[in-house]
Amino acid sequence: MNALYQMWAIARVEYRMQWRQRGMIVIALAMLLIMVTTIVLMASEFNTDREFRDKFATASTDAITSLTFILAVTSVCVLLPFVLVNLIPRDRQIGVIEILHSTPMSSTTYLTGKLIAGWVTALSGLVPGAIVMAVLWYIIIAPFNILSYLEIWLVGALPLMVINVGLVIVLAFRMPDSRMAVAVAVGVIVLPWFIIGFDPRNDWLDIFNSFRPGVFFHYTDVSAIDDEIGALSPTITILSGLAQLALAWLGAVAWLRWRNGY
Amino acid sequence: MIEIQNLTKTYKGNIQALKGIDLTIENKMFGLLGANGAGKTTLMRIVAGLLKPTDGRVTVFGHDMATLKGKQAAKGLLGYLPQEFGLYQTLTAREFLDYVAILKGITDSQRRQREIDEVLEKVRLSDVANRRLKSYSGGMKRRVGIAQALLGNPKLLIVDEPTVGLDPEERVRLRNLLSDMAATCTIILSTHIVEDINQSCNDLAVIRDGAVVFRGAPRDLIQNAKGKVWHVTTDGERPNGGVAIVSTRQVQEGVQYRVLGQPDSLYQPTAIEPSLEDGYIWLMNQQP
Hints:
The structure holds two protein chains of two kinds. Chain A is an all-alpha fold. Chain A has one domain. Chain A contains eleven helices and no strands. In chain A, 44% of the residues are buried. The model of chain A has no long low-confidence stretch (mean pLDDT 83). Chain B folds into two domains: 2-217, Rossmann fold, CATH 3.40.50; 223-285, no CATH class. Chain B contains nine helices and 14 strands.
């Protein structure tokens, strides 16, 4: 019970700090700006294009899921991992970690608390974004299929966020400072792109690709951006990502217990 | 009671920070004195459960620090002020203390707020408790560090160089605060500032190159230098002949040196009463 309370405290403090720093606010404002600009531009297209107007509901749903997908992938796969990767290295860099580890909190609780903190902070940016976009779209452009819209957030973006944000936080837990933490994020998020490539015909190697092609190609298909489907199903891609995260967490916990005996 | 048996710590590169330390620390204010790099912080971090020793055993109020259960139980009784630490700049002092209080297991919010108010009052930060820490001076941040160590009514308080960065008034206040707390908890005060020990501790150990070279009361350390401290006044020439100069002062007749050892009689030295600092320097000048 105490461990849960400690994890909640870590998540609360991190959430507060992240929003008081510039990083999250800049990302949120940039996303909002992109969202509003795109919606305004699309509104004029919808109002002039006769063909679109004729099949309004389908076109509206396709368009918002496309836009959602692009924004979600950009924020979940690229921006948020880079903003949140230094949750633990920053504590070490500024020297607050000595104080935190002198309390009865276990290293496992600390690591898990930071992980939850990363997810809560990321969600706190994504959820308002999703709501704002839906409302703006509904008012400015047209009604759309809410279920399709929700699916792309809940089944597509959310697991990607859990996996990518989680992986960078856990894999960077030993880094001494923010610069090294960013290097880890580059290794986890950017390098697989170049090493594995980004091709729907890739198979099992794709489970190590941070863009999770199984999910990516599924939703480019759903959102009508592209009709290619990845070699791996979204389910296998997400499960393998979660398994990687669980393995990384277990490895980190084992190392902490060996190193600190606690 | 804290028991330390045959404690050694060797860092990478075969750097021996601690060489078989044996200490028993009773329930009172205990001073740990030593030069920078003597091994004090390493010893404090091991006792606080932040560092694993290479060999040896530490028990804190009967809890074995080598076991997971023992370490967690001991940390529940501990307040620790590290020598160097940072704070979250975007939080206020109250928010930071609230966070540490929860991590220390104070889950009841009313009790937590009461304790936070008390420690803020003790370190005289109540008026600025709702200001963000980035606006604090170095001394104020140090006081936040002291406040977090006091949270949870610790039975063991480890303070590593607590007076560094504090102004003279705050230094005196902290010494008095620690002396008051020593009535109810064990305090280990690690410092290289002899005056801090002199004013507060009735039991101390001197550590040099990772080994304890003295253990006893401050008066015993002072006694070591009895008959070896002199005032020598010259026209500016530094006294030679195997003496250690403790201090120098300009006087009407020239320059007055406070020296340790046996100065040449041609200087017409005057014997004076030794201080704790004299005893410490005398000890440090002895061959290992």
